Please model this.
Amino acid sequence: MELEIRTAIESDLPALLDIYNHEVLHGISTLDLHPKTMEEWRLWFFSHNRDNHPLLTALAGGIPAGYASLSPYREKEAYKSTAELSVYVAPAFRRMGIARALMERILEEARLDPRTHLVVSVITSGNEASIRLHRDFGFTYCGTVPEAGMKFGVFQSIDSFYLLV
Model:
């Protein structure tokens, strides 16, 4: 499988939205409860690839298979040097090393940007593949917020991880 990772472009939007909304509807990787609309997704898209907030698309054989983003951690100005990492891969492309390739590239971008000091990830507890991936890249566990949200009728806890870049 030929894998290309590049800066996301506007024509990627429908595929990236499908990848995310699949998790909204079927997974616990996000605690969003309702699928995003294209309008909401477009706003999210245009908040990236500026400042220290890259958005990357992974293309497997030319097909958008996943994405990684660094987003603002919080809106307060003091947090500008902290970015929150997200990595999503379409179900048909999982267990092929795409998440690992995306993670490697987005962290490389973070390290090259002097505006980024800290990368954080909030992972739904029990998502062992994501936790293992973060640990493989040197992220440090810093705590669990128990039963922080409810999805699919079950309280979900969240684990926080950080990496100084």
Q: What stands out?
A: The chain is about 30% helix and 35% strand. The mean pLDDT is 97. The two ends are 30 Å apart (CA to CA).
